[in-house]
Amino acid sequence: MVKKEKKSPRGDKRRKDAPALIAELFRSLPDKRYSVKSLMAAVGATTRDEKERVRGIVRDLAAEGVIEQVSEGKYRLSHSERETVEGTVDMTSSGALYVIVEGMDKDIYVNASRTSHALHGDRVRVAITRKGRTGNPEGEVVEIVERSKKNYVGVVEMSEGDAFAFVRVDSRKMATDIFVPARALHGAKGGEKVLVKITGWPDTMRSPEGEIVDVFGEPGDNNAEMHAILAEFDLPYGYPEEVEKEAEKIPETITDEEIAARRDMRGVATFTIDPADAKDFDDALSIRRLENGNYEVGVHIADVTHYVHPGDLIDTEGQNRATSVYLVDRTIPMLPERLSNGLCSLRPHEEKLCFSAVFELDEQAQVLGEWFGRTVIYSDRRFTYQEAQEVIETGRGDFADEILKLNGLAQTLRKERFRNGSISFEREEAKFDLDENGKPLRVYFKEMKESNQLIEEFMLLANRRVAEFVGRKRKGAQNAERTFVYRVHDKPNSDKMAQFRNFVLRFGYQMKAEGNKAVAKEINRLMKKIHGKKEENIISTLAIRSMAKATYTTDNIGHYGLAFDYYTHFTSPIRR
Length: 576
Fold this sequence. Notes:
The protein is α+β, with helices and mostly antiparallel strands. It has a 7-stranded mixed sheet with strand order 14-21-20-17-16-15-22. The chain has a 5-stranded mixed beta barrel with strand order 4-5-6-8-7.
Protein backbone atom coordinates (compact mmCIF):
# COMPACT_ATOMS: atom_id res chain seq x y z
CA MET A 1 0.00 0.00 0.00
CA VAL A 2 1.39 3.43 -1.07
CA LYS A 3 1.38 5.95 1.71
CA LYS A 4 -0.06 9.33 0.66
CA GLU A 5 2.01 12.37 1.45
CA LYS A 6 0.31 14.69 3.90
CA LYS A 7 -0.38 18.21 2.63
CA SER A 8 0.87 21.08 4.75
CA PRO A 9 -2.05 23.08 6.12
CA ARG A 10 0.21 26.15 5.94
CA GLY A 11 0.97 25.48 2.27
CA ASP A 12 -2.75 25.16 1.50
CA LYS A 13 -3.41 28.47 3.26
CA ARG A 14 -0.64 30.23 1.33
CA ARG A 15 -2.01 28.94 -1.96
CA LYS A 16 -5.57 29.86 -0.99
CA ASP A 17 -4.57 33.42 0.02
CA ALA A 18 -2.21 33.91 -2.92
CA PRO A 19 -3.89 37.09 -4.32
CA ALA A 20 -3.84 38.83 -0.92
CA LEU A 21 -0.30 37.66 -0.16
CA ILE A 22 1.06 38.85 -3.51
CA ALA A 23 -0.61 42.26 -3.11
CA GLU A 24 0.79 42.51 0.44
CA LEU A 25 4.31 41.70 -0.80
CA PHE A 26 4.20 44.62 -3.20
CA ARG A 27 2.77 47.00 -0.60
CA SER A 28 5.21 46.04 2.17
CA LEU A 29 8.23 46.70 -0.08
CA PRO A 30 6.91 49.23 -2.61
CA ASP A 31 10.28 49.83 -4.25
CA LYS A 32 11.20 46.16 -4.68
CA ARG A 33 10.95 44.64 -8.16
CA TYR A 34 9.48 41.15 -8.18
CA SER A 35 9.78 38.59 -10.95
CA VAL A 36 6.90 36.18 -11.52
CA LYS A 37 9.17 33.31 -10.43
CA SER A 38 9.96 34.99 -7.10
CA LEU A 39 6.24 35.51 -6.49
CA MET A 40 5.56 31.80 -7.23
CA ALA A 41 8.18 30.85 -4.65
CA ALA A 42 6.76 33.29 -2.11
CA VAL A 43 3.28 31.73 -2.24
CA GLY A 44 4.56 28.16 -2.51
CA ALA A 45 3.27 27.53 -6.06
CA THR A 46 4.82 24.24 -7.27
CA THR A 47 2.37 22.66 -9.68
CA ARG A 48 1.64 23.86 -13.19
CA ASP A 49 -1.88 24.99 -12.22
CA GLU A 50 -0.61 26.89 -9.19
CA LYS A 51 2.04 28.66 -11.24
CA GLU A 52 -0.50 29.58 -13.90
CA ARG A 53 -2.74 30.95 -11.20
CA VAL A 54 0.09 33.23 -9.99
CA ARG A 55 0.57 34.48 -13.56
CA GLY A 56 -3.14 35.27 -13.71
CA ILE A 57 -3.01 37.16 -10.39
CA VAL A 58 -0.09 39.28 -11.67
CA ARG A 59 -1.97 40.04 -14.91
CA ASP A 60 -5.06 41.06 -12.95
CA LEU A 61 -3.10 43.32 -10.55
CA ALA A 62 -1.38 44.97 -13.51
CA ALA A 63 -4.71 45.47 -15.30
CA GLU A 64 -6.21 47.03 -12.17
CA GLY A 65 -3.24 49.42 -11.91
CA VAL A 66 -2.12 48.03 -8.55
CA ILE A 67 1.29 47.06 -9.95
CA GLU A 68 3.30 48.17 -12.97
CA GLN A 69 5.83 46.43 -15.20
CA VAL A 70 9.24 48.07 -14.93
CA SER A 71 11.25 45.66 -17.12
CA GLU A 72 10.83 42.34 -18.88
CA GLY A 73 9.11 40.03 -16.39
CA LYS A 74 9.55 42.33 -13.37
CA TYR A 75 6.92 44.30 -11.51
CA ARG A 76 6.61 46.76 -8.64
CA LEU A 77 3.83 48.59 -6.81
CA SER A 78 2.29 51.41 -8.89
CA HIS A 79 2.82 55.01 -7.78
CA SER A 80 -0.92 55.42 -7.30
CA GLU A 81 -0.93 52.63 -4.71
CA ARG A 82 2.00 53.82 -2.64
CA GLU A 83 1.84 55.67 0.64
CA THR A 84 2.54 59.28 -0.27
CA VAL A 85 3.07 62.43 1.76
CA GLU A 86 3.46 66.08 0.81
CA GLY A 87 6.40 68.20 1.84
CA THR A 88 9.01 70.78 0.88
CA VAL A 89 12.29 70.02 -0.89
CA ASP A 90 15.66 70.73 0.71
CA MET A 91 18.17 70.15 -2.10
CA THR A 92 21.81 69.09 -1.61
CA SER A 93 24.78 69.92 -3.85
CA SER A 94 24.93 66.29 -5.07
CA GLY A 95 21.43 66.47 -6.56
CA ALA A 96 19.91 64.25 -3.88
CA LEU A 97 17.30 65.89 -1.71
CA TYR A 98 15.39 65.67 1.52
CA VAL A 99 11.66 66.21 1.74
CA ILE A 100 10.59 67.98 4.92
CA VAL A 101 7.13 66.82 5.96
CA GLU A 102 5.22 68.57 8.71
CA GLY A 103 4.53 66.17 11.57
CA MET A 104 7.24 63.67 10.61
CA ASP A 105 10.23 63.34 12.94
CA LYS A 106 12.65 62.50 10.13
CA ASP A 107 13.03 63.96 6.64
CA ILE A 108 12.61 61.65 3.65
CA TYR A 109 15.78 61.06 1.63
CA VAL A 110 15.42 60.97 -2.17
CA ASN A 111 18.27 59.77 -4.37
CA ALA A 112 19.29 62.09 -7.23
CA SER A 113 17.94 59.60 -9.78
CA ARG A 114 14.44 59.71 -8.25
CA THR A 115 13.79 63.42 -7.84
CA SER A 116 11.61 63.84 -10.99
CA HIS A 117 13.40 67.18 -11.59
CA ALA A 118 12.25 68.62 -8.26
CA LEU A 119 14.17 71.71 -7.12
CA HIS A 120 14.95 73.36 -3.80
CA GLY A 121 11.84 74.83 -2.20
CA ASP A 122 9.38 72.94 -4.40
CA ARG A 123 6.25 71.50 -2.83
CA VAL A 124 6.21 67.82 -3.80
CA ARG A 125 4.38 64.57 -3.23
CA VAL A 126 6.77 61.78 -2.35
CA ALA A 127 6.20 58.04 -2.13
CA ILE A 128 7.95 56.38 0.80
CA THR A 129 9.69 53.35 -0.71
CA ARG A 130 11.72 51.92 2.14
CA LYS A 131 13.77 52.59 5.23
CA GLY A 132 17.53 52.96 4.85
CA ARG A 133 20.19 51.25 6.94
CA THR A 134 19.90 53.94 9.61
CA GLY A 135 16.13 53.52 9.80
CA ASN A 136 15.45 56.84 8.07
CA PRO A 137 12.75 56.84 5.38
CA GLU A 138 13.69 56.92 1.71
CA GLY A 139 11.39 57.77 -1.16
CA GLU A 140 10.73 58.90 -4.69
CA VAL A 141 9.16 62.13 -5.90
CA VAL A 142 5.95 61.22 -7.73
CA GLU A 143 4.50 64.69 -8.27
CA ILE A 144 5.65 68.32 -8.17
CA VAL A 145 2.67 70.01 -6.52
CA GLU A 146 4.00 73.57 -6.71
CA ARG A 147 7.21 74.98 -8.13
CA SER A 148 9.24 77.27 -5.91
CA LYS A 149 9.48 80.86 -7.14
CA LYS A 150 13.09 81.06 -6.02
CA ASN A 151 15.53 82.73 -8.42
CA TYR A 152 19.24 81.88 -8.53
CA VAL A 153 22.43 83.93 -8.69
CA GLY A 154 25.21 82.78 -10.99
CA VAL A 155 27.70 83.63 -13.72
CA VAL A 156 26.88 83.49 -17.43
CA GLU A 157 28.92 81.12 -19.62
CA MET A 158 28.24 81.64 -23.34
CA SER A 159 28.33 78.88 -25.94
CA GLU A 160 30.36 79.13 -29.12
CA GLY A 161 28.63 81.54 -31.45
CA ASP A 162 26.54 82.89 -28.56
CA ALA A 163 23.61 80.67 -29.59
CA PHE A 164 22.77 79.91 -25.96
CA ALA A 165 24.30 80.09 -22.51
CA PHE A 166 24.47 78.30 -19.21
CA VAL A 167 24.36 80.02 -15.84
CA ARG A 168 26.78 78.46 -13.37
CA VAL A 169 24.83 78.82 -10.15
CA ASP A 170 26.53 79.96 -6.91
CA SER A 171 24.07 78.24 -4.56
CA ARG A 172 24.75 74.75 -3.24
CA LYS A 173 21.01 74.22 -3.38
CA MET A 174 21.20 73.86 -7.16
CA ALA A 175 23.05 70.79 -8.39
CA THR A 176 23.12 71.70 -12.08
CA ASP A 177 23.72 74.66 -14.36
CA ILE A 178 20.72 76.42 -15.88
CA PHE A 179 20.29 76.49 -19.66
CA VAL A 180 19.37 79.91 -21.07
CA PRO A 181 18.44 80.29 -24.76
CA ALA A 182 19.70 83.39 -26.55
CA ARG A 183 16.22 84.97 -26.58
CA ALA A 184 16.10 84.85 -22.76
CA LEU A 185 19.52 86.46 -22.07
CA HIS A 186 18.05 89.99 -22.11
CA GLY A 187 21.39 91.64 -22.70
CA ALA A 188 23.47 89.59 -20.27
CA LYS A 189 27.02 88.90 -21.43
CA GLY A 190 29.46 86.10 -20.74
CA GLY A 191 31.22 86.40 -17.39
CA GLU A 192 28.58 88.66 -15.82
CA LYS A 193 26.89 87.89 -12.51
CA VAL A 194 23.14 87.60 -13.03
CA LEU A 195 19.84 86.60 -11.48
CA VAL A 196 18.08 83.79 -13.36
CA LYS A 197 14.52 82.53 -13.12
CA ILE A 198 13.70 78.90 -13.94
CA THR A 199 10.96 78.68 -16.56
CA GLY A 200 10.71 74.90 -16.93
CA TRP A 201 12.50 71.56 -17.02
CA PRO A 202 11.45 69.33 -19.91
CA ASP A 203 12.05 65.61 -19.41
CA THR A 204 14.25 65.59 -22.50
CA MET A 205 16.74 68.10 -21.03
CA ARG A 206 19.55 67.45 -18.54
CA SER A 207 19.33 70.99 -17.13
CA PRO A 208 16.41 73.25 -16.29
CA GLU A 209 15.67 76.12 -18.65
CA GLY A 210 15.78 79.68 -17.42
CA GLU A 211 15.51 83.38 -18.18
CA ILE A 212 17.77 86.24 -17.01
CA VAL A 213 15.77 88.66 -14.85
CA ASP A 214 18.59 90.97 -13.68
CA VAL A 215 22.24 91.69 -14.46
CA PHE A 216 24.40 92.68 -11.48
CA GLY A 217 27.72 93.29 -13.22
CA GLU A 218 31.23 91.89 -13.00
CA PRO A 219 32.00 89.32 -10.28
CA GLY A 220 34.07 90.93 -7.55
CA ASP A 221 32.55 94.38 -7.97
CA ASN A 222 31.29 95.44 -4.52
CA ASN A 223 27.89 96.69 -5.64
CA ALA A 224 27.32 93.64 -7.84
CA GLU A 225 28.24 91.25 -5.03
CA MET A 226 26.05 93.02 -2.47
CA HIS A 227 23.04 92.90 -4.78
CA ALA A 228 23.82 89.26 -5.54
CA ILE A 229 23.89 88.43 -1.81
CA LEU A 230 20.48 90.04 -1.32
CA ALA A 231 19.05 88.28 -4.37
CA GLU A 232 20.47 84.90 -3.29
CA PHE A 233 18.44 85.08 -0.07
CA ASP A 234 15.35 86.49 -1.80
CA LEU A 235 15.85 89.86 -0.13
CA PRO A 236 14.80 93.00 -2.02
CA TYR A 237 17.52 95.38 -3.17
CA GLY A 238 15.19 98.02 -4.59
CA TYR A 239 11.70 99.38 -4.15
CA PRO A 240 8.85 98.99 -6.63
CA GLU A 241 8.30 102.26 -8.50
CA GLU A 242 4.69 102.57 -7.34
CA VAL A 243 5.77 102.33 -3.68
CA GLU A 244 8.42 105.03 -4.17
CA LYS A 245 5.82 107.26 -5.83
CA GLU A 246 3.42 106.69 -2.93
CA ALA A 247 6.14 107.73 -0.46
CA GLU A 248 6.90 110.87 -2.46
CA LYS A 249 3.26 111.97 -2.12
CA ILE A 250 3.53 112.23 1.68
CA PRO A 251 3.81 115.92 2.67
CA GLU A 252 6.81 117.07 4.71
CA THR A 253 5.09 119.93 6.49
CA ILE A 254 3.53 119.44 9.91
CA THR A 255 0.25 121.31 10.22
CA ASP A 256 -0.72 123.51 13.17
CA GLU A 257 -3.73 121.22 13.69
CA GLU A 258 -1.44 118.19 14.03
CA ILE A 259 0.79 120.00 16.54
CA ALA A 260 -2.25 121.08 18.56
CA ALA A 261 -3.39 117.45 18.82
CA ARG A 262 -0.07 116.38 20.35
CA ARG A 263 2.02 117.09 23.44
CA ASP A 264 4.43 119.81 22.37
CA MET A 265 7.94 119.01 23.63
CA ARG A 266 9.90 121.17 21.20
CA GLY A 267 11.19 123.37 24.03
CA VAL A 268 12.77 120.49 25.99
CA ALA A 269 16.47 119.66 25.52
CA THR A 270 16.43 116.71 23.11
CA PHE A 271 19.16 114.78 21.26
CA THR A 272 19.96 111.48 19.56
CA ILE A 273 22.90 109.16 20.27
CA ASP A 274 23.72 106.66 17.53
CA PRO A 275 26.66 104.89 15.86
CA ALA A 276 28.88 107.13 13.73
CA ASP A 277 27.77 105.39 10.52
CA ALA A 278 24.02 105.55 11.28
CA LYS A 279 21.93 106.99 8.48
CA ASP A 280 18.57 107.11 10.25
CA PHE A 281 17.76 108.16 13.80
CA ASP A 282 14.51 106.65 15.02
CA ASP A 283 14.79 107.35 18.75
CA ALA A 284 15.73 110.40 20.83
CA LEU A 285 16.02 111.31 24.51
CA SER A 286 14.89 114.48 26.26
CA ILE A 287 15.44 115.63 29.82
CA ARG A 288 14.48 118.60 31.98
CA ARG A 289 14.40 119.28 35.72
CA LEU A 290 10.96 119.74 37.23
CA GLU A 291 10.06 122.32 39.87
CA ASN A 292 9.78 119.57 42.50
CA GLY A 293 13.41 118.56 41.92
CA ASN A 294 12.65 115.39 39.96
CA TYR A 295 13.51 114.80 36.30
CA GLU A 296 11.27 114.40 33.30
CA VAL A 297 12.89 111.99 30.84
CA GLY A 298 11.31 111.41 27.43
CA VAL A 299 11.99 108.44 25.17
CA HIS A 300 10.82 109.54 21.73
CA ILE A 301 10.19 107.12 18.88
CA ALA A 302 9.43 108.21 15.32
CA ASP A 303 5.66 108.03 14.78
CA VAL A 304 5.65 105.78 11.72
CA THR A 305 1.89 105.21 12.06
CA HIS A 306 1.25 108.86 11.17
CA TYR A 307 2.62 108.20 7.69
CA VAL A 308 1.93 104.50 7.05
CA HIS A 309 -1.64 103.28 7.28
CA PRO A 310 -2.99 99.70 7.38
CA GLY A 311 -3.52 98.24 3.93
CA ASP A 312 -1.84 101.00 1.89
CA LEU A 313 0.93 100.30 -0.63
CA ILE A 314 3.76 101.17 1.76
CA ASP A 315 2.28 99.06 4.56
CA THR A 316 1.81 96.06 2.24
CA GLU A 317 5.40 96.33 0.98
CA GLY A 318 6.63 96.59 4.57
CA GLN A 319 4.71 93.45 5.53
CA ASN A 320 6.28 91.57 2.62
CA ARG A 321 9.78 92.65 3.69
CA ALA A 322 9.09 92.00 7.40
CA THR A 323 12.29 93.74 8.55
CA SER A 324 15.17 95.95 7.52
CA VAL A 325 18.30 94.14 6.35
CA TYR A 326 21.78 95.21 7.46
CA LEU A 327 24.85 94.45 5.37
CA VAL A 328 28.38 95.50 6.15
CA ASP A 329 28.22 98.59 3.93
CA ARG A 330 24.51 99.40 3.67
CA THR A 331 21.03 99.05 5.09
CA ILE A 332 18.08 97.85 3.02
CA PRO A 333 15.23 99.56 4.87
CA MET A 334 11.83 98.05 5.45
CA LEU A 335 10.24 101.36 4.46
CA PRO A 336 11.28 103.62 1.55
CA GLU A 337 14.18 105.96 2.30
CA ARG A 338 11.92 109.00 2.17
CA LEU A 339 10.40 107.64 5.37
CA SER A 340 13.25 105.70 7.01
CA ASN A 341 15.96 108.31 6.37
CA GLY A 342 13.71 111.33 6.03
CA LEU A 343 10.29 111.89 7.55
CA CYS A 344 10.73 109.24 10.29
CA SER A 345 14.36 110.05 11.04
CA LEU A 346 14.77 112.29 14.08
CA ARG A 347 17.40 114.47 12.45
CA PRO A 348 18.77 117.49 14.33
CA HIS A 349 17.18 120.92 13.92
CA GLU A 350 13.97 119.51 12.46
CA GLU A 351 10.50 119.23 13.97
CA LYS A 352 9.41 115.59 14.08
CA LEU A 353 6.29 113.65 15.00
CA CYS A 354 6.85 110.99 17.66
CA PHE A 355 5.19 108.50 19.92
CA SER A 356 6.74 109.00 23.33
CA ALA A 357 7.13 107.46 26.75
CA VAL A 358 7.66 110.26 29.28
CA PHE A 359 8.73 109.46 32.84
CA GLU A 360 9.11 111.40 36.07
CA LEU A 361 12.18 110.02 37.87
CA ASP A 362 13.69 110.90 41.23
CA GLU A 363 17.41 110.92 42.00
CA GLN A 364 17.30 107.14 42.64
CA ALA A 365 15.79 106.56 39.15
CA GLN A 366 12.48 105.46 40.67
CA VAL A 367 9.53 106.00 38.32
CA LEU A 368 7.07 108.32 40.07
CA GLY A 369 4.88 109.03 37.06
CA GLU A 370 4.55 108.15 33.40
CA TRP A 371 2.73 109.29 30.28
CA PHE A 372 2.45 107.63 26.85
CA GLY A 373 1.20 109.37 23.74
CA ARG A 374 1.85 111.33 20.59
CA THR A 375 4.26 114.25 20.66
CA VAL A 376 6.10 116.73 18.47
CA ILE A 377 9.80 117.23 19.24
CA TYR A 378 12.81 119.20 18.02
CA SER A 379 16.18 117.46 18.23
CA ASP A 380 18.89 119.94 19.26
CA ARG A 381 21.92 117.75 18.57
CA ARG A 382 22.99 114.51 16.95
CA PHE A 383 25.64 112.72 19.04
CA THR A 384 27.68 109.71 18.06
CA TYR A 385 28.39 107.21 20.83
CA GLN A 386 32.02 108.36 20.84
CA GLU A 387 31.00 112.03 21.26
CA ALA A 388 28.60 111.23 24.10
CA GLN A 389 31.27 109.06 25.75
CA GLU A 390 33.73 111.96 25.63
CA VAL A 391 31.19 114.16 27.42
CA ILE A 392 30.70 111.45 30.08
CA GLU A 393 34.45 111.03 30.61
CA THR A 394 35.45 114.72 30.56
CA GLY A 395 32.28 116.39 31.87
CA ARG A 396 32.58 118.95 29.07
CA GLY A 397 30.78 119.53 25.78
CA ASP A 398 27.34 120.22 24.35
CA PHE A 399 24.49 119.34 26.75
CA ALA A 400 27.04 118.09 29.28
CA ASP A 401 24.70 118.57 32.26
CA GLU A 402 21.88 116.69 30.53
CA ILE A 403 24.08 113.80 29.37
CA LEU A 404 25.76 113.41 32.75
CA LYS A 405 22.41 113.36 34.56
CA LEU A 406 20.95 110.84 32.10
CA ASN A 407 24.05 108.68 32.47
CA GLY A 408 23.81 108.75 36.25
CA LEU A 409 20.16 107.69 36.14
CA ALA A 410 20.96 105.00 33.55
CA GLN A 411 23.71 103.49 35.70
CA THR A 412 21.31 103.37 38.66
CA LEU A 413 18.68 101.62 36.51
CA ARG A 414 21.35 99.20 35.29
CA LYS A 415 22.49 98.24 38.80
CA GLU A 416 18.90 97.70 39.89
CA ARG A 417 18.22 95.53 36.84
CA PHE A 418 21.15 93.22 37.58
CA ARG A 419 20.21 93.12 41.25
CA ASN A 420 16.81 91.78 40.16
CA GLY A 421 18.34 88.94 38.13
CA SER A 422 18.98 90.39 34.68
CA ILE A 423 21.79 88.62 32.79
CA SER A 424 24.75 90.53 31.36
CA PHE A 425 25.70 89.33 27.87
CA GLU A 426 28.18 91.75 26.32
CA ARG A 427 29.75 89.96 23.39
CA GLU A 428 32.26 91.69 21.17
CA GLU A 429 30.74 92.96 17.93
CA ALA A 430 32.95 93.05 14.84
CA LYS A 431 32.89 96.26 12.78
CA PHE A 432 34.56 97.10 9.47
CA ASP A 433 36.19 100.21 8.06
CA LEU A 434 35.55 100.39 4.32
CA ASP A 435 37.01 102.56 1.57
CA GLU A 436 34.90 104.50 -0.93
CA ASN A 437 34.57 101.35 -3.08
CA GLY A 438 33.32 99.19 -0.22
CA LYS A 439 36.60 97.31 0.21
CA PRO A 440 37.42 96.47 3.84
CA LEU A 441 40.44 98.31 5.24
CA ARG A 442 40.38 96.91 8.78
CA VAL A 443 38.23 94.99 11.22
CA TYR A 444 37.88 95.97 14.85
CA PHE A 445 35.74 95.08 17.84
CA LYS A 446 33.17 97.56 19.07
CA GLU A 447 33.44 98.20 22.80
CA MET A 448 30.31 98.76 24.89
CA LYS A 449 30.82 101.88 27.00
CA GLU A 450 28.61 103.98 29.25
CA SER A 451 27.19 105.98 26.32
CA ASN A 452 25.87 102.71 24.86
CA GLN A 453 24.51 101.68 28.26
CA LEU A 454 22.80 105.07 28.64
CA ILE A 455 20.71 104.50 25.52
CA GLU A 456 20.18 100.81 26.34
CA GLU A 457 18.77 101.46 29.82
CA PHE A 458 16.25 104.08 28.74
CA MET A 459 15.11 101.95 25.82
CA LEU A 460 14.64 99.02 28.21
CA LEU A 461 12.75 101.25 30.63
CA ALA A 462 10.37 102.43 27.92
CA ASN A 463 9.85 98.92 26.55
CA ARG A 464 9.14 97.48 30.00
CA ARG A 465 6.80 100.22 31.18
CA VAL A 466 4.78 100.29 27.93
CA ALA A 467 4.35 96.50 28.14
CA GLU A 468 3.26 96.80 31.78
CA PHE A 469 0.84 99.61 30.93
CA VAL A 470 -0.88 97.46 28.31
CA GLY A 471 -0.55 94.08 30.00
CA ARG A 472 -1.43 94.76 33.62
CA LYS A 473 -5.11 94.39 34.48
CA ARG A 474 -6.87 97.44 35.87
CA LYS A 475 -9.93 97.85 37.99
CA GLY A 476 -13.35 98.40 36.47
CA ALA A 477 -14.19 98.40 32.77
CA GLN A 478 -10.51 98.36 31.75
CA ASN A 479 -9.97 95.01 33.42
CA ALA A 480 -10.51 93.14 30.13
CA GLU A 481 -7.44 91.41 28.73
CA ARG A 482 -5.94 93.22 25.72
CA THR A 483 -4.12 91.54 22.87
CA PHE A 484 -0.53 92.77 22.61
CA VAL A 485 2.74 91.61 21.06
CA TYR A 486 5.30 90.86 23.76
CA ARG A 487 8.98 90.02 23.47
CA VAL A 488 9.36 86.96 25.70
CA HIS A 489 12.27 84.82 26.83
CA ASP A 490 11.69 81.45 28.50
CA LYS A 491 13.67 79.98 31.38
CA PRO A 492 16.82 78.02 30.40
CA ASN A 493 16.64 74.31 29.63
CA SER A 494 18.19 72.33 32.51
CA ASP A 495 19.95 69.86 30.17
CA LYS A 496 21.56 72.65 28.15
CA MET A 497 22.67 74.40 31.32
CA ALA A 498 24.22 71.15 32.58
CA GLN A 499 26.18 70.87 29.33
CA PHE A 500 27.29 74.50 29.68
CA ARG A 501 28.46 73.86 33.25
CA ASN A 502 30.56 70.92 32.05
CA PHE A 503 32.04 73.03 29.27
CA VAL A 504 33.16 75.96 31.46
CA LEU A 505 34.59 73.47 33.97
CA ARG A 506 37.29 72.70 31.38
CA PHE A 507 38.45 76.32 31.73
CA GLY A 508 38.47 76.07 35.52
CA TYR A 509 35.15 77.84 36.16
CA GLN A 510 32.41 76.40 38.34
CA MET A 511 28.66 77.06 38.26
CA LYS A 512 26.89 75.34 41.12
CA ALA A 513 23.71 77.38 41.49
CA GLU A 514 20.23 75.98 40.82
CA GLY A 515 16.97 77.91 40.41
CA ASN A 516 16.25 80.69 37.95
CA LYS A 517 17.47 83.76 39.83
CA ALA A 518 20.47 81.96 41.26
CA VAL A 519 21.50 80.76 37.78
CA ALA A 520 21.23 84.31 36.43
CA LYS A 521 23.48 85.66 39.18
CA GLU A 522 25.92 82.80 38.66
CA ILE A 523 26.14 83.58 34.93
CA ASN A 524 26.75 87.26 35.69
CA ARG A 525 29.51 86.27 38.11
CA LEU A 526 31.05 84.10 35.40
CA MET A 527 30.86 86.92 32.84
CA LYS A 528 32.81 89.19 35.19
CA LYS A 529 35.49 86.53 35.73
CA ILE A 530 36.06 85.94 32.01
CA HIS A 531 35.97 89.62 30.99
CA GLY A 532 39.07 90.48 28.98
CA LYS A 533 40.31 86.89 28.85
CA LYS A 534 40.90 84.96 25.62
CA GLU A 535 38.09 82.52 26.37
CA GLU A 536 35.52 85.30 26.92
CA ASN A 537 33.99 85.26 23.44
CA ILE A 538 33.49 81.49 23.16
CA ILE A 539 32.06 81.17 26.68
CA SER A 540 29.72 84.14 26.14
CA THR A 541 28.56 82.66 22.84
CA LEU A 542 27.87 79.26 24.37
CA ALA A 543 26.12 80.85 27.35
CA ILE A 544 23.71 82.58 24.97
CA ARG A 545 23.14 79.35 23.06
CA SER A 546 22.34 77.59 26.32
CA MET A 547 19.48 80.01 26.84
CA ALA A 548 16.05 79.76 25.24
CA LYS A 549 15.48 81.95 22.19
CA ALA A 550 13.58 85.19 22.65
CA THR A 551 10.42 85.32 20.54
CA TYR A 552 7.43 87.54 19.75
CA THR A 553 4.07 86.32 21.01
CA THR A 554 0.74 87.53 22.40
CA ASP A 555 1.11 84.99 25.25
CA ASN A 556 3.20 86.78 27.86
CA ILE A 557 5.52 84.58 29.93
CA GLY A 558 7.96 87.35 30.84
CA HIS A 559 11.57 87.88 29.81
CA TYR A 560 13.97 85.69 31.78
CA GLY A 561 17.20 87.22 30.47
CA LEU A 562 16.15 90.74 31.43
CA ALA A 563 14.27 89.64 34.56
CA PHE A 564 11.18 91.58 33.42
CA ASP A 565 7.61 90.34 33.90
CA TYR A 566 6.53 92.45 30.92
CA TYR A 567 8.59 93.42 27.90
CA THR A 568 7.95 94.55 24.32
CA HIS A 569 9.76 96.34 21.49
CA PHE A 570 8.01 99.69 21.66
CA THR A 571 11.29 101.43 20.79
CA SER A 572 11.47 99.68 17.41
CA PRO A 573 8.90 101.80 15.57
CA ILE A 574 8.50 99.51 12.58
CA ARG A 575 7.83 96.52 14.85
CA ARG A 576 5.41 98.64 16.84
